[in-house]
């Protein structure tokens, strides 16, 4: 199926560490990836906060984004996202306000309320409440701190984010359930749904977001609902190669599900079977008529899958994430997809 509506494509990166490499290697490769996808015409390069993980090196997200922004010129750079209960809103406003002061209107601030780690590490981070009401208040405080000094949210707020005040860094609400959708709607913010790892709730979440969206809150930053969906992608010149490379991502999912985290495994069916304790199962296909949020194949096959997602869910943007053991093949995957999608190369 083809679509005449080509929504923007963006990239979600977690600075994955491949087996046999180091965290320093992973950070260099993420920087090179940002430069590659900027040239390929992608809209955003987001990095997600994770802690205590041997798989991902993106714990100090704001530091990494400053590095990436300094090595790129035009692509939007942002968090996908900051796990807000881990941080004081004032500190987040200072960090991202500083980035905006340095790099202008290229910075996005995506916000989530998951811990982004295991319970022990979460406790060490001295997390505040992740209850929905408290989270929504923290988001509203962030909007106030990043807004003009004279704004309705300032009543009773005695602190200021300097730098940060007046930068109006765009806020995004992230979510994998109805909670994030309801907060995004109530505060008038764009919404990015984590369908790349929690696809089953996307229809109900988007329905809540669109039906409840309001611009009446002083935090509102857009005039109408704007939804983005996450998709796992592995793109290669042939279907067979793409499926072979995707065994790395399959192994990552198995490791996450079983709590056996490790750097990204090299591709191979034998490796995947050993992790699963038996023969490799055929790649899971949806039987309910809904498109999958894991697109693996040639550029044409992946584009057809993404077209299905855009048509079915009416999303305004897609954010794709790719895991391959070889970082060069990860960059190639994004380049092949960008060309097939018709992105304007820079």
From TrEMBL:
Single GO MF annotation: oxidoreductase activity, acting on paired donors, with incorporation or reduction of molecular oxygen
Domain Luciferase-like: 10-316
A cellular component term, taken from the record's GO annotations: cytosol
InterPro entries assigned: Bact_Lucif_Oxidored, CmoO-like, Luciferase-like_dom, Luciferase-like_sf
Source lineage: Bacteria, Bacillati, Actinomycetota, Actinomycetes, Micrococcales
Record region (Disordered): 259-295
Family, similarity comment: To bacterial alkanal monooxygenase alpha and beta chains.
Name under which the protein is recorded: Luciferase-like domain-containing protein
């Amino acid at each position: 199926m083809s679509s005449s509506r080509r929504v923007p494509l963006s990239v979600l990166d977690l600075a994955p560490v491949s087996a046999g490499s180091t965290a320093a290697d992973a950070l260099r490769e993420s920087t090179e990836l940002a430069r590659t996808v900027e040239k390929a015409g992608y809209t955003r390069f987001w990095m997600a906060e994770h802690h205590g993980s041997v798989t991902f090196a993106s714990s100090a997200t704001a530091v990494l984004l400053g590095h990436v922004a300094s090595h790129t010129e035009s692509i939007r750079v942002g968090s996908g996202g900051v796990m807000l209960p881990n941080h004081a809103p004032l500190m987040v406003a200072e960090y991202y306000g500083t980035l905006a002061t340095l790099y202008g209107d290229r910075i996005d601030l995506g916000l989530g309320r998951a811990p982004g780690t295991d319970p022990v590490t979460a406790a060490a981070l001295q997390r505040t409440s992740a209850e929905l009401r408290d989270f929504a208040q923290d988001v509203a405080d962030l909007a106030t701190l990043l807004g003009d000094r004279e704004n309705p949210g300032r009543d009773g707020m005695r602190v200021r984010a300097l730098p940060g005040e007046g930068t109006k860094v765009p806020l995004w609400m992230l979510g994998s359930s109805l909670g994030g959708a309801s907060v995004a709607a109530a505060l008038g913010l764009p919404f990015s749904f984590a369908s790349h790892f929690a696809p089953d709730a996307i229809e109900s979440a988007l329905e809540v977001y669109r039906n409840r969206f309001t611009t009446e809150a002083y935090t509102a930053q857009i005039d109408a609902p704007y939804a983005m969906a996450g998709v796992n992608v592995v793109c290669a010149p042939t279907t067979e190669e793409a499926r072979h490379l995707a065994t790395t991502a399959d192994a990552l999912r198995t490791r996450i599900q079983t709590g056996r985290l490790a750097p990204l495994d090299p591709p191979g069916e034998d490796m995947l079977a050993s992790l699963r304790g038996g023969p490799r199962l055929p790649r899971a296909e949806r039987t309910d008529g809904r498109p999958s949020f894991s697109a693996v194949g040639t550029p044409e096959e992946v584009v057809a899958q993404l077209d299905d997602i855009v048509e079915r869910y009416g999303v305004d943007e897609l954010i794709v994430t790719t895991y391959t053991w070889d970082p060069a093949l990860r960059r190639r995957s994004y380049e092949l997809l960008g060309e097939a999608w018709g992105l304007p190369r820079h």
